Amino acid sequence: MNFCSKGIVAVSACVFLSGCVATPPDSRMVAVADMAPGSWTASKEGKSGVDRLWVQRFGDSKLTRLVEEAVTRNPNMKIAAERVQQARYAARIAGSDGRPTANLDLTGEKRKIQFVGFPFGGSQIANSYSSEFRVNWDIDLWGRVRASSSAAMADAQATELDRKAAEASLAAEVCKAWFALAEARQQVALVQDSINLKKRTVEAVRDRFERNLQEEGGTASQLRLAQTDLATTMATLSERQGELEAAQRRLELLVGRYPAGKVIGRAVLPKMPSKVPSGVPSGLLQRRPDVISAERRFAAAGMRLKEAKLAVFPVFSLTGTTGTSTDSLIKVVDSDFGVWSLSGNLSQAILTGGVLTAERDSRASKEREELANLQQTVLKAFGEVENALAAEKWLKRRITELEKANKLAKEAAESADQDYRDSTGDVLTLLETQGRKIDIASQLVRLKRLQLDNRVDLHLALGGGFYLSGK
């Protein structure tokens, strides 16, 4: 290559290496920082910080394994992961606009030239070969391309945060499904115990009926009443068994398995972890992935507004070419036949029919929309924590009172049974106390499951994410 050709290649390399690199926009969370209160208002119980090992706090290794399986196999998580990749590729594409482009062209041509004339007519075959290396760079003097690339990076960050939010939500759903399965098994066991109890009651009434002890609760109507109560409870058993199978299928779907209804849950609900997490409200803005995702989209909208404002400035581009032109293929790389050029271009929009102004105003509106969305997301996050903390308090009180009622209902049922056997009680009182005992026990199991669900909701609302090991 001659001096000029080498110079163009060197300049091209320097231009490529000297291009400014875009970075993600700075955090704009300050726009909503004053929305955070000094402390939570719903409850004063939450004193500890955010617990990232909350899944393990329920003391069930199988639950931990199911969460791991769900995060790995659930199709929604695979969709979220692919969306992250797509957003990253989009950011890479946006960033490439401010970088030089290079193209290499090789051309070969064979032509027949016909000569017309008298007396020397005839023809000739002509060969032509050329090569051209072209470098073009739209120089980002004002930072318009960098603003666009920075916005795309923020979008990619928001998409990754969406994936993290979906992962935490999936872990919470698996936990709740696991608790629902345990509750369903307990509810089936309660109904089965009730059936056994009511079968004994039917036999006792039948015995008195067959011995014609009408004054001692052995009438036909009392027998039919006891049999009706048993049949109703048998129907309830079928309902509970259906709920159990539905809970099994739901859990299997969450972990990415075929919904065969074969997963085996624990027989009873796990114990409630004692420590109530909460942290401080301001920390929520730095932890919750949906809040940070909304902030990243707000930041991206700001960079796109900047891009629209900079679009009114002129665009300057450089184009450099070097190559050869010869009639022989073997000489196409010979610099003695080289040609080169270097040109610059300046383009300034003058009349656009109001397009640039409309685009700027549209993006300003989008920025305001994203700010409002961020504010709404923050309010929703605070509301979820406050509601979960309040529910923690009220569920605890309800369970305490219902445990007392459960104890009294058991004692009432035992007394009614003894009274009936002593011929001092009636079958209506016996059946009513038996039914109330089972109903209260069922409500208590349901409340304890709701308490566990609410603790999961609290962890999720605090936005601390989760770890599946202590490492």
UniProtKB/TrEMBL annotation:
SUPFAM superfamilies tied to this protein: Outer membrane efflux proteins (OEP)
Highest taxon of the lineage: Bacteria
GO molecular function, one term: efflux transmembrane transporter activity
Family annotation (Pfam families): OEP (PF02321)
Any one of the GO CC terms: plasma membrane
Bilayer disposition of the protein: Lipid-anchor
Cited InterPro entries: MdtP/NodT-like, OMP_efflux
Entry keywords, A to Z: Lipoprotein, Membrane, Palmitate, Transmembrane, Transmembrane beta strand
Family: Belongs to the outer membrane factor (OMF) (TC 1.B.17) family.
Protein's recorded name: Efflux transporter, outer membrane factor (OMF) lipoprotein, NodT family
Naturally occurring in which organism (per UniProt): Rubritalea squalenifaciens DSM 18772
